Amino acid sequence: QSAAGKPVNFREMSDTMCEVIEANVFVVSRRGKLLGYAIHQQIENERMKQMLAERQFPEEYTQSLFNITETSSNLDVNSAYTAFPVENRELFGQGLTTIVPIVGGGERLGTLVLARLGQEFLDDDLILAEYSSTVVGMEILREKAEEIEEEARSKAVVQMAISSLSYSELEAIEHIFEELNGTEGLLVASKIADRV
């Protein structure tokens, strides 16, 4: 309740889910970036540690998650979608993974991955997971909308500035951009003026 009206912090949300359902929680973007995560059961594995340090899931795994279009619960360690390191299958034989797609505006925005040892994910856990994925989806859409608004404002400011120029100022700007041959660079205005 204290976060009302503020952007959702994916890390805090992951921590809360981790405490409530007692599982490792990973909020993964479409491109495999870890937006937030919380660890309930430490997994001693170098690849997992590196993944968490880089905040990036493997691309192949991320792409495979798109094959799951609805919540898939209690996948065992032999599943291609397991969140446990496959090279240590014997250690995590009781590992269970639940995959919850994050969908917003009719498109796949990411995936919520839950993992724990021994205890199956029950209906209460799945309801909370699906609710959380909806919140994450809405938040990702809100962030996208803010980016679009910011870009539109920037374009409007540039358009206003250009429309306020006199004909000769506009002509000078055109010559400057022709000299730049791109979006940035170094030039001397007096040299351009001599050529025009």
From TrEMBL:
Keyword Lipoprotein annotated: no
Residues annotated as domain Global transcriptional regulator CodY N-terminal: 1-164
Any one GO MF annotation of this record: DNA binding
InterPro entries in alphabetical order: CodY (IPR014154), GAF-like_dom_sf (IPR029016), Transc_reg_CodY_N (IPR010312), WH-like_DNA-bd_sf (IPR036388), WH_DNA-bd_sf (IPR036390)
Record keywords, A-Z: DNA-binding, Transcription, Transcription regulation
Short name of any one Pfam family annotated for the protein: CodY
Any GO BP: negative regulation of DNA-templated transcription
NCBIfam families in the cross-refs: codY_Gpos, PRK04158.1
Annotated protein name in UniProt: GTP-sensing pleiotropic transcriptional regulator CodY
Native source organism of the sequence: Bacillus cereus
Organism classification: Bacteria, Bacillati, Bacillota, Bacilli, Bacillales
Annotated gene: codY
